[in-house]
Design brief:
With 263 residues, the protein is of the alpha/beta class. The protein has eight helices and 13 strands. The longest helix has 14 residues.
Length: 263
């Protein structure tokens, strides 16, 4: 039985993680941690109520989880990882906002055999979207990324957009010449978006959205659009459960759900 601690358990994604893990065969939620909601209870899939702990270190010492799942905030996740990894707890992280360099440094805190797994997106369709975009970039190198999220998201661009841009850059090699920052009108800087490894990325934040991304390719006499839409946060749960099952079979820093999905 895989013992799972959920950090950020009272949040919109964290509460779904509690339900998904408690419903999955061979694993159980042994602790729910959320410092911002002292005394709050979250409900698992069986209808049981789990009281949220407020101190992560104490919860780890008392419950001895095998895996910590973190869907918290960019300003919280680093501290959580320092505590959990040092205690030898494998970590499954969906909180974005940390650089790959910092993730690599944090992964070194764990004893031998400990794994820090990070995915910018746990939706299977989003992973496929990134893989399709990487393949298309070999043949259509002119591309821009538009990502759309709810207005409460704390980082821009999204982790998914950053990961997509990096995968595109790897596939296409040199960036093709296209109108860039030099075409922006005075006082309107940013119109061409942010450059991530030479790929223009545009971030939209609006109430009513969940998580969406479109990758637009242009070529002679044609365009190609690859889009993924997250309609509900439950779309992340199969990926989270997969990561909880597989993280113990890996060590060090592992990035991207595709690494656990096989060919």
């Amino acid at each position: 039985m895989i013992r799972v601690l959920v950090a950020g358990a009272a949040g919109r994604v964290g509460s779904e993680v509690v339900k998904a893990v408690s419903a999955a065969e061979g694993m159980e939620v042994v602790s729910a941690v959320d410092p911002g909601v002292s005394g709050c209870f979250v409900q698992d899939v069986h209808g049981s109520h789990i009281e949220c702990a407020t101190d992560l270190a104490t919860a780890i010492e008392f419950e001895k989880p095998d895996v910590m799942v973190d869907f918290t905030r960019p300003d919280v996740v680093e501290g959580n990882l320092r505590i959990a990894l040092a205690a030898g707890v494998d970590c499954v992280v969906g909180t974005t906002g940390l650089s790959e360099a910092l993730l690599g440094e944090l992964a070194l805190l764990g004893p031998e055999g400990t794994c820090l797994f990070f995915a910018p997106n746990f939706a299977i369709g989003a992973v496929l979207m990134m893989q399709f975009a990487q393949k298309a970039a070999r043949f259509m190198p002119h591309v821009e990324v538009i990502e759309l999220h709810h207005d409460q998201k704390l980082d821009a661009p999204s982790g998914t957009a950053i990961r997509t841009a990096k995968m595109i850059a790897e596939a296409r090699g040199a960036s093709p010449a296209s109108p860039g920052r030099e075409t922006e009108l005075p006082g309107m800087e940013g119109a061409r978006g942010a450059l991530v490894d030479g790929v223009s990325v545009h971030s939209i934040r609006l109430p009513g959205l969940v998580a969406h991304q479109e990758v637009l390719f242009g070529g002679q006499g044609q365009t190609l659009s690859i889009r993924h839409d997250t309609i509900d946060r439950t779309s992340f749960m199969p990926g989270v459960v997969l990561a909880c099952r597989e993280v113990g079979n890996n060590e060090g820093l592992v990035i991207g759900l595709e690494k656990l999905m096989g060919e």
